[in-house]
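Re-run requested by the PI after the first attempt was lost when the workstation crashed. Everything re-entered from the original request form. Ligand of interest: pyridoxal-5'-phosphate.
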Amino acid sequence: MLSNSNSKSLFERARQVIPLGVNSPVRFFDPFPFFAVSGKGSKMATVDNESFVDYCMGYGSLLLGHGYPAVTESVKRQIEDGSLFCVPTEGEVRLAELMSEIVECADMTRLVNTGLEATMNAVRLARAFTKKKKIVRFDGCYHGAYDYVLAAHGPTDISEGLLSEAVSNTIVLPYNDSERLEDQIKHDSDIGCVIMEPVPANIGLVLPERQYLNEVRRITLQNDVVLIFDEVVTGFRLALGGAAEFFGVKPDLATFAKALGNGFPIAAIAGRKEIMQQLSPNGKVYQASTYAGNPICVSAAIATIKTLCDAKSEIYPKIARTCDIIVHGIRDALADLKLGWTVNNIGSMFQTFFANNKVTNAYGANKSDPSIFRRVFFELLKKGIFIPPSRLETCFISYSHSEDDVDKTIESYHEALRTVKLTL
Ligand SMILES: Cc1ncc(COP(=O)(O)O)c(C=O)c1O
């Protein structure tokens, strides 16, 4: 696979007109990525007539699977009725009502288009509400590609072109270390908000240690700091009510995207009424967008949420069980590897690290071996299994993954690791 292919020639064309041929960095992998033509259920088909069992699933967006019928039908109906009005629609009201029914902190919701927009406006709201300038984020958590949250404290090591003002007002702390957080917040009265992925899924997959999220909540409450859960990945996935429901911790604001639209670009900021009411035109925190609440994406989100609500008792146990079986199979396949490894998993998400220690933060994830991961990735690809091409991403199960997919996946991991073991 990946030789003499249509993907190869498309990539040659793409790199002339698109920076390194891709519209988002993680889509590139050496020597060139495959090009997709269609997706159905758990599978993605390529321009080379290949089919992959997909564990990228739109980086977690496709919770129900590619082209889920109820979502597709709803979108088709809406397209017939019009794609953009830029005046309010009943669908927007219905979606915000559903958010309030499902998400505990969601007294009010505002719709936007991407995760980036959601977290950026949530941070602005938190700053305005607390009248404090600085924000805390955690090393390895990703909140979108804009200045405040790409910034490290001090010289930037992530991106050029960031504003120094944004860099100096963003404090980056290690995840899973509540003592460091408490110390920082107690000694800096200008911290207005803490933004975090409750379960970091952009540094591979990292799990919160026992009581960590409760501690973050206690510390932020005691110090009048707004807590933002960035549930762009975990929202609707870890539980219907996201990580907040799963762990029983209620933030002040939460952001959603990905699974909310099952593949359609829609996102939301939700939270406490007194904070949300500051948004313009009600309040003085300016936020606006032509496409926000566009009827097509709203219809996709309503169909997704209705499906999740109606079959909640079947969907969540099924995707968690599927993930457990796959992780069990991967651990078996890794058993006699002459290298350290660990598989982190929760709900319908998992990731394998080739590392000697448990991976509990960005430091541990970054120390894991990228070259073994890369070899496993390519061996799996040869067998028709597509996992995200980086160890610093997460694998996602959808409701459409079948028992056959699971059997094929476990068998493929065994064969892939057998091949990799021979070369160690
Ligand atoms: C946790 C989290 N927050 C925010 C974002 C940004 O979302 P988007 O890519 O829709 O702007 C992402 C994207 O992967 C994410 O994983």
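Saved to the shared folder this time. The first strand starts at residue 36 and ends at 40.
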